[in-house]
Amino acid sequence: MLSLEEIESGLLVTHKNTGLRYSVVDLDEGEVLLSPEQTGLQDLTVPTHLFCEEFVASDRFRSGPPRGRGRGRRRQATAAPPAPTGPKCRGTIKKMVRDRGFGFIRGEDGKEVFFHRSGLNAADYDGLSEGDAVEYVVQEGPRGSRAENVRQAAAAAAP
Questions:
Q1: Over the stretch 37-54, which tens digit does the pLDDT of each residue have?
Q2: Taking the CA atoms of the chain, what radius of gyration do you get in angstroms?
Q3: Measured between alpha carbons, how far is 20 from 16 in angstroms, rounded to an integer?
Q4: Is residue 15 a contact partner of residue 54, using CB atoms and an 8 Å limit?
C-alpha cells in the first residue's frame, strides 16, 4: 500500500488488478491525476484513498525536468493523447459539477452525455458554463457514452 509521502509528480505506478501503468501528474485535495503510459487511454482522476490501496509504485520515475524540494505538485508536460475519432456533435452544457471536475451535455438529439475535465484541456474546462453551446465527440467507454474534446461552439468554429 502506498503512503501519501510517496506520492509525487512523475512517480510511475501500476494498478494491482489490471496491470496498467500510469505516471502521477498531480496530487491535489484528495485526488490523484494519473496519465497512462499506454496510448489510446485517457487521464484518470482517482480519490487518494483508493489510489493508495489499488496502485503500487514502480521502480523508476518518469523522465522530465528536475523536481524541486518538497512535494511536487506542479504539472509536468505530457504527450497529448490522440484526438478522439467519430462524428462531431453539438449540444448545450446542462450541468457543471466544478468541485468534482465533470458535467453533462444535452445533445441536439436530446440525449445527455457525461464529460470529465480530463477529456479536455484545463483552459477549455474552466471556460465552460451551464447553457454554453458546445461541440464534442462521443466515445463509448466501459461506463457508457462520454463526451471528449468538448469545446465552445464559437471557439470550435475558429481556425
A1: 877 778 888 888 888 888
A2: 17
A3: 8
A4: yes
Q: State the Cα angle at 81 between 151 and 85, rounded to 5°.
A: 60
- 38, containing H or E segment: none
What dotted CATH number matches 4-61? Answer: 2.30.30.30
User: CA 8, CA 62: separation in Å to the nearest integer?
Assistant: 11
Other C-beta atoms closer than 10 Å to the C-beta of 139 total: 16
Q: Which CATH architecture has domain 88-157?
A: Beta Barrel (2.40)
Distance CA 31, CA 51 (A): 8
- The pLDDT value recorded for residue 106 is 95
Weakly modelled stretches of the chain, pLDDT under 70: 59-86, 122, 154-159
**CATH 2.30.30.30 domain locations along the chain:** 4-61
Cell, residue 44? 484518470
Backbone angles phi, psi at 42, to 5 degrees: -100, 160
pLDDT (0 to 100) of residue 86: 66
Dig out the grid coordinates for 4 from the structure: 501519501
